[in-house]
Write a structure and sequence with these properties.
Layout lengths: L46 E4 L7 H4 L4 E2 L3 E5 L4 E6 L2 E2 L8 E3 L2 E5 L14 E2 L16 E2 L4 E2 L1 E10 L2 E9 L11 E9 L7 E2 L4 E2 L12 E7 L5 E6 L14 E6 L1 H5 L7 E6 L2 E5 L6 E3 L4 E9 L2 E8 L4 E7 L10 E5 L6 E6 L9 E8 L7 E9 L2
Antiparallel strand pairs: 1-28, 2-5, 3-4, 4-7, 5-6, 7-8, 9-10, 11-12, 12-13, 13-14, 13-15, 16-17, 17-18, 18-19, 18-21, 19-20, 22-23, 23-24, 24-25, 26-27, 27-28
Keywords: Signal
Organism: Streptomyces curacoi
Pfam families: DUF4185
């Protein structure tokens, strides 16, 4: 597959959506929490403000014209914010030179009130013009099998090290029942995003014989006050074409020091074992949520509440849920931003600096699959999950 075929990634996004929630993600971990009524998606503050794809904007000043995802994370070493884009170009509306994936822009300070939109103030990896963070080739075999691109799923920094979990994509057009991935991995940086290294361990994907691996896409929920790093993961469906995705999500946790050391075998799994739910190393994680096919997802601990957002491929909507603990039962999904208000949307990453668990900032992507149209990210504030 050539780089010119990358636009097919988003070509199957739905133009409309239904509001039925039948089967849209029921937990099996206990009694359901009461649903919270959805507030208006277009709340006070930034309501769909484009953060790139506009000539002269802050992204273009850092060398990025158009891109998607813009996964936000907190740079704890200096109190600033990073945003990790997927495939990106120097020009607006997906024109100009292809930069690569992943790409990072940074921000000195974030206004959680939504009064001021996100503005990027410098780029990685050099602090000058935006560039691809990882050293790998596109549309080639880098030693693991043919890969087209490495797409970031989430980013977190703790203990002086930055981590990006990514999926290596083998094809953007997988056959029905296949996810099209090559593998998944975790890259780390000890200089806050300038240089990157891979852990030796990688999770096999479709091309390597592990189609539908539940370790395909991760979201770092964060380090809880109990000292564990909680991680949610699911099947790769960044293509939005994985017909076998089923919305399945699993949960595991690991001590931060073990994670830093690449000792991934030390994880504990949230599993239904012997008739009850428990943390264990004796069984793999059990599926905690199922429902519609889902794409990008995000879980973050905001002021003590765990908040989840995800793109429901079948509905064409970004939905949210909450839980008091990562291993508690999640509330029913609430559609927040739909294709009726933002055509051809996807993504929907929770900003870890959100004002509160009842006033989230979401970073939403938009692209309609044809050349010469927006390929960008939008900022929404005041989202009540």
């Amino acid at each position: 597959m050539s780089m010119s075929s990358l636009p097919t990634r988003r070509s199957l996004l739905r133009a409309g959506m239904g509001l039925t929630l039948a089967g849209a993600g029921l937990s099996v971990a206990g009694p359901a929490l009461p649903a919270v009524a959805a507030g208006p998606a277009m709340a006070a503050g930034q309501s769909g403000t484009p953060l790139c794809d506009r000539p002269g904007d802050s992204a273009s000043q850092q060398g990025l014209g158009s891109g998607d995802l813009a996964i936000p994370y907190y740079r704890e070493h200096d109190g600033t914010w990073g945003y990790v884009f997927g495939d990106a170009w120097t020009g607006t509306r997906q024109s100009g030179e292809y930069i690569g994936s992943p790409v990072m822009l940074n921000q000195a300070s974030f206004d959680a009130s939504g009064a001021t939109p996100i503005s990027f103030t410098w780029a990685m990896p050099t602090g000058g013009r935006a560039g691809q963070l990882f050293a790998y080739g596109h549309d080639t075999d880098n030693g693991y099998g043919h890969e087209v691109s490495r797409i970031p799923n989430d980013c977190i920094e703790f203990g002086g090290r930055t981590y990006i979990q990514y999926t290596s994509v083998h094809t953007w057009d997988p056959p029905a029942g296949y996810d099209g991935s090559l593998m998944s991995g975790v890259a780390y940086s000890d200089d806050h995003g300038v240089t990157w290294h891979d852990y030796d361990y990688r999770w096999a994907g479709d091309l390597q014989g592990a189609n539908q691996s539940l370790y395909g896409m991760w979201s770092f929920a964060g380090i809880d006050p109990d000292g564990w790093l909680y991680v949610f993961s699911k099947r790769w469906n960044g293509t939005h074409k994985n017909t076998a995705d089923g919305g399945a999500i699993q949960l595991f946790r690991i001590r931060p020091d073990d994670f830093r050391d690449g000792n991934f075998g030390a994880q504990q799994n949230w599993a239904h074992l012997g008739g009850s739910w428990q943390w264990t190393t004796a069984a793999p994680p059990s599926v905690i949520l199922t429902g519609h096919n889902t794409g990008e997802f995000s879980v973050k601990r905001i002021n003590g509440t765990y908040c989840m957002s995800y793109f429901d491929v079948d509905m064409g909507a970004i939905c949210t849920r909450t839980a008091p603990r990562p291993d508690a039962v999640w509330s029913i999904p609430v559609p927040q931003i739909t294709a009726l208000t933002v055509p051809n949307l996807y993504g929907g990453y929770i900003h870890p600096g959100s004002a509160s668990a009842t006033s989230l900032t979401l970073i939403v992507s938009q692209w309609n699959g044809t050349v010469g149209t927006p390929y960008r990210v939008l900022q929404f504030d005041g989202i009540r999950p």
